[in-house]
Predict the structure.
Amino acid sequence: MKAATYAQKIGLIIQQTRTARGLTQAELAEKIGTSQSAIGRIEKGGQNMSVEMLGRISDVLDSSIITLNDDGKTNFRIRGGKKLTGEITVNTSKNAAVALLCASLLNKGKTTLRRVARIEEVNRIIEVLNSIGVKTKWLPHNDLEITPPSKLKLDEMDVKAAMRTRTVIMFLGPLLWQYTDFSLPFAGGCDLGKRTVEPHLSGLEPFGMKVTASDDAYHATSSPQTPSRAILLTERGDTVTENVIMAAALHDGETIIRNASPNYMVQDLCFYLLKLGVKIEGIGTTILKIRGKKTINQTVDYYLSEDPIEAMSFIAAGVVTDSEITVRRAPIEFVELELAVLEGMGLRYALSSEYLARNGATRLVDVTVFPSKLVAPKDKLHSMPFPGINMDNLPFLGLIATMAEGRTLVHDWSYENRAIYFTELTKLGAHIEMVDPHRVYISGPTRWRSADVVAPPALRPSVVVLLAMLAAEGRSILRDVYNINRGYEDFANRLNKLGADIETIHEV
């Protein structure tokens, strides 16, 4: 194949991706620091491009234009020790997005999700949906249009994409009433040790679903039936609750779910289902009463609510760098306990008046954090099901504990082995004592030092290491940041707008 043909093909990919992202040639040119005419030549295949230029275009378009090899990694080079300043706006929820993408399978009509986070986790689910016949289209402002086929092509599922995310397990609930026999690949995502799927299976069994496991897949058979009594979830898990809610949504009758998670992504799912005509009582509590519909065929659009974990990430960034920043559009219901704990440790912060998210239900505030002298909490730091401290926010509280005078016990009981990842901070100067795979003692305050670290194979621990590097004087390298890109949209550049100095490096 001639070089000109390669250039033309790459140019066409860039043009199609740019259009899908809702960008003009001029806007793309401005974002990557070139001229509109240069973009025009690139898209026509009339200009040679360096690997660096391809990398910059890929970053802006959030798409790998070409893959040079399977081993290429994305790294961050951080020049730390800088104060952050300014304002940052919280994006919509990653966990709500993936749940609603799965829930779109309940609807025979068109779903438009507004302001969806453009992250790898979302991309993986979209790839899976596309492979089984669902049409998706990106609109301006990160809106996503989802149109289902008359019949899903489950046998054509993109197994590789499905195995890179744990979200695929949430296909069970939507498919229960639609297919009597199907298989799903084993779920992937963060490497956090064994996480049982038994609560999912026991929650769906009252509807007539049975699941068996083979070497690489879950095989589901379904004989849909009405639950004989209220469904008691054996685990108050978020995805478990969502799976059972989605099963109940297509049940033409009443379902009662007890010990349900009332967490933020569950509430988002419920608000979406209300727009589809499903009746739900008890949103935000542990007991849900759901009256579903045998068939759902609605044209609907829904604004996702903001992400409390991202809000906490930026709050932690401000605290660990001893900076004053404002985090806008934080969902206060899901971070107020964390803020109360931090207030007890000496954190100074201010809250704006409350206002509603675009979904008309979630309460938001703007949070301003100020440089503070922190002390270790009197009690251990540990998560609990909502309304307790969110398990995904616990790593950020542990990071903040490194800045506090005294000794803090962090008990991360919810994930097998995740507490071990706190020891990565010792490479940056933190004093961490391992008690067992679930408990660590953190002594502070920390004098951070720069380091070269491979990102942990899990999302929140990777972000914790990145934020610590922001506080460390000198140059640090965080290698293989796929997990961060999986869960956060344009995280490095957004931190840079606050005054951080993070450079993205692509290995080839």
User: Anything to note?
Assistant: The radius of gyration is 23 Å.
